[in-house]
Amino acid sequence: MTRKDAEKKARDLVGKMTLREKASQLRFDSPAIERLGIPAYNWWNEALHGVARGGTATSFPQAIGLAATFDDVLTEKLGDAAATEGRAKYNQLSARGDHDIYHGLSFWSPNINIFRDPRWGRGHETYGEDPCLTSTLGQAYVHGLQGCGEVLKTAACAKHFAVHSGPEALRHQFNAVASAKDMEETYLPAFEDLVKIARVESVMGAYNRTNGEPCCASPTLMKKLRGDWGFEGHFVSDCWAIRDFHTGHHVTNTSAESAALALKTGCDLNCGNSYQCLMSAYEQELITEEEITLAAVRLFTTRYLLGILDDETSEYDDIPYSAVECEKHLKLAHQAALESCVLLKNDGLLPLRAEGVIGVIGPNANSRGALIGNYYGTSSRYITVLEGIQDRVGENARVLYSEGCHLFKDRVEPLAQSGDRLAEAVTVAENSDVVVLVLGYDERLEGEEGDEGNADASGDKTDLLLPESQRLLLDAVLRTGKPTVLVLMAGSAVDVSEAQDKVDAILLTWYPGARGGKAVAELLFGDVSPSGKLPVTFYRNEALQEMPAFTDYSMANRTYRYYTGIPVFPFGYGLSYADIGIEVLSADRSAAEVTVVNRSAFPADEVIQLYIKDRHSPDVPLHPVLCGFARVSLAAGERRTIRVPINPRAFTAVNAAGERIPGSGEWTLYAGFGQPDPLTEKLTGKACLSLVIKQKN
């Protein structure tokens, strides 16, 4: 069905409704209209990394882990898997009259905000700090969710539009001030691409104001969205964001005024209860029936495009419930976990041998919470890092375990003394041949405002350090002198620089999904080589004093593109067990051709990364920026030539007025397995190849 056909049907159907009926359909929990044969529909569903909050589903690595794969092909497959499971659930539940929250086909994913500041608690929901990476993976996930048939498989949503990345504690009243240059260069490209290229069906407005206008009622943003970009889908508010108009932003005085402002500006669907006041707003002559009708038509257009009205049928109606958490999807989740983990350091201890006594220590070693991040589904099975190691070594090695400490409190047992697991942890370490120390965070330490347990900073981090309980444990284990692998489970930058020279290896696993412990174990024991790359810069804690304030949305001295200091680990960085090199580079303005060779006996994946720097323009970022990437699998000794497309924006610049203009006509293109910077070269021992591209006259 074309959008034109769906819109015509929507107009005919909405034309049969009373005004009150039309207004009722603009709520996220749209009630049934029995006289017209319209079933109830709840628009609120989540699929950030698999179907969330709606019962059993395949659990993928958290979005930041998917970003670390630099694998858009896999990301699209994961989106398709989530859509398949969403359809399987919808087919069965709706047939039984279940139209509850989290059971619909409109997924409020992906989150394509830019992870501009490492303190932001929701940063692990994103695809990292780079606009090119975010756009590419966001498009892939949308393509997977929506499918390519005549009917939408599910309806994806680009959120949160726009300029949204903390602080969480202030989001209901905060005004994010961003320059015209930063808007065009950093904050908006991914949204533009998801609208114009991926044809995302919906866009969600953010809680905050942007440059003085509430994002869910911003004429400036709406003109960009519907005018400049030609967005044809529906616009939804973040949950209870419209209420913030009068309670936090103080741009209106009443609920009716807030509802009217949102509707008149173009917000079609309200997550929250503000649109219960639409009839009151109409009676006060704040809105017109035509404005209510327009929003209703947009929403029913989506429902028709999903093929869930009338007696329509689609290729997705017969997806059985057996597709939920099926073997195919579990394999995809496992592949994603393997590709996402980033090897930050290895002095030769890894891969481990499955022999002797292995001590597994740490509050995240046997934690389910550290597997799943936030916005997660329910898995029928969980495999923690401890369990993954135990399963992997079997009877070949003895595994000792100690929790070591609480994740963030000074004791595990409330009646015990401070550090009540330290002595046990030291004992385990001293009786082991090698230690796997599993530290980090979970959603209690970095998450969304209002989530249980993160009230200290409303979900944001106050620094980049491990909690004191974990730092004490780390120091105690290292003082035993035993060979130690530090496994970090976190969704953002962690400064472990004080221990970096003392541990033998560091593996960053992010939040690898419900069964992610199996993948972590396979990487530790060398069944597969680590191949993930950092989608964010890992700064030193002191860098927070060098950056603009958390509330300052300037990109100055932020992210790898503008940071002037030396980080702990740079964006794009990640080690491998294999020795893979680049031998030949050629390029034009559309793509680069790169010859890569695996010089080792270890089969492995690598991520070819292209960076570009305008040689003369004053309007580009300080450092070369990512403009293309491709994941490649190489057998031992294999040589291959890969064609990597170059993002067309690479040859443009953004001036202070926010205008995207042609570049100078001469660019340096770099190809490697990380950034073309001294730190990456020092850490990897490999330099990027480069060449100059000149514009033909």
Structure description:
The protein is α/β, with parallel strands linked by helices and 697 residues long. It has 22 helices and 23 strands. The strands form seven sheets. A six-stranded mixed sheet has the order 9-14-13-12-10-11, sandwiched between helices. A four-stranded antiparallel sheet has the order 18-17-22-23, with no helix packed on it. A three-stranded parallel sheet has the order 3-5-8. Helix 4 runs parallel beside helix 5, helix 13 (327-340) packs across helix 19 (516-524) and helix 16 (422-430) runs parallel beside helix 17. The longest helix has 24 residues, at 72-95.
Quick take:
The chain has 22 helices and 23 strands.
Helix segment tally: 22
Overall radius of gyration: 25 Å
Q: How many strand units?
A: 23
CATH level-3 fold name of the domain at 335-562: Rossmann fold
As laid out across the biggest beta sheet, the strand order is 9-14-13-12-10-11
What's the overall average pLDDT, rounded?
A: 97
Largest sheet geometry: 6 strands, mixed
| CATH architecture annotation of the domain at 335-562 | 3-Layer(aba) Sandwich
State the separation between the terminal residues, measured CA to CA. 45 Å
Ranges where pLDDT stays below 50 over 5 or more residues in a row are: none
Helix share of residues?
25-40%
Inertia-based shape: globular
